[in-house]
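Reviewers of the previous submission asked for a worked example of the structure-prediction workflow described in the proposal, so we include one complete record here. The input consisted solely of the amino acid sequence. No template or homolog information was supplied to the procedure at any stage.
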Amino acid sequence: MFFSDIIGQTETKTSLVTGARSGRVPHAQLFLGQEGSGALGLALAYAAYLQCEEPGETDSCGQCKACTKTHKMIHPDVHYSYPTVGSKSISTESVADWRGAFVEHGCYFSLNSWLNRLNAENKQGNINTDETRDITRKLSLMAYEGRYKILLLWLPEFLGKEGNRLLKLIEEPPDETVFLLVAENQEAILPTILSRCQLVKVPPLSDSEVADGLVRLAEQSRANAERTAFLANGNLAKALEMADDKNHDHADMFMEWLRLAYQNKGPAMVQWVDKMAGAMPVNDRRWGRKDQKFLLEYGSHFLREMFVHIAVGQPDLRLPEA
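From that input alone, the workflow returned the following structure tokens.
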């Protein structure tokens, strides 16, 4: 992962590179940003930059042995930890899925899409006792070939009380060891872990940046990208999910429901519910849970924008022009 692969976040990129070039590399940093902001990608690009043998002024070189291995996620001194499913499962057992998620989504994927990849069904993700022991084991080893030993831990919120097992290691790590934690919900992280990390705040993307990402990553037209960006609220992962649904009819379906409700057409509303539930096709296809979720999200977004417009006369509605 290169810094140039990440949409927006120019100030954060500059700050990370400047610190690394000047030798100011904190032993523990917490990248805090909402889903789809690019926080995970920033941590990955930073790890690659730290290991790079010939780092440039703005990015890793991409040519050296360290870059080749880091970008393929096979560098022996860059370790990854993330939520898995099962009380005894550890991250190394699902590393092929982890690499596959980046091949499919880049750095912009949600926890739900990750758990779906693991076939979690209704099970919850967690970072368990065995995982914390494995982290301790990995970081107790000497570096094989890198400048640093790096642990990138995605979603430390899932550590829960198990995070206490890592406190001493984070506070007093072995020499040249770097912790990179990537979180979305600060309140769900143990305060004792927070106090041991330097905070890197990653702001949400603007609508324009989300649209840029859709044009670049999903090859959408600018007009379609801007319409989708309105609904994503700074979350490029969500926007890419919506863009992946090539035939979505959420706006038309929601407007149809509003009109049927206004006209009090009971039988037609029952038929509309059957279409939404997947019992009847919509434009030659049947809806699933993703369609239903997007429809509800679009509807709540639409109503909020309209109520704000009516109440305070907000001139710029975050809605398609039609």
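The mean pLDDT is 88. We consider this example representative of the routine output the project will generate in years two and three.
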